[in-house]
Specification:
mainly alpha, 7 helices, about 65% helix
Length: about 110
């Protein structure tokens, strides 16, 4: 499942500075292409669904903010490359167990 693969990709990039450096300036199409070459089964749709759900969870649950332009999360993205924002402002807010649990809530078919 590509949602699982995308979460695994984010975890690996967060743990590997060289990989993060390679991917940080790539656009989505380039990221998908190169990630597939590294064994990650990603689609743009699954990337968008995971990122959107994680962002909403950070805003509404973790920060307790309204889901609008004044949320702290939206302000934290300014001036960052999108991958850096995802790693530093979004997924860094989760433990590995929380990310896996979140993925299971997002898609009950997930077994990890």
């Amino acid at each position: 499942m590509s949602q699982e693969s995308f979460v695994a990709f984010l975890e690996r990039v967060a743990a590997d500075d060289a990989m993060r450096h390679r991917y940080r300036e790539r656009n989505l199409e380039q990221l998908l292409f190169h990630a597939k070459n590294e064994g990650f089964a990603l689609t743009a749709e699954d990337v968008a669904s995971v990122v959107g759900a994680l962002e909403a969870d950070v805003i509404l649950v973790k920060d307790g903010d309204a889901f609008d332009g004044d949320s702290r999360l939206w302000r934290s993205m300014w001036g960052l490359r999108h991958l850096d924002y995802l790693l530093d402002a979004v997924t860094a807010r989760y433990t590995e167990a929380e990310l896996r649990g979140f993925l299971r809530k997002l898609n009950p078919a997930v077994t990890t």
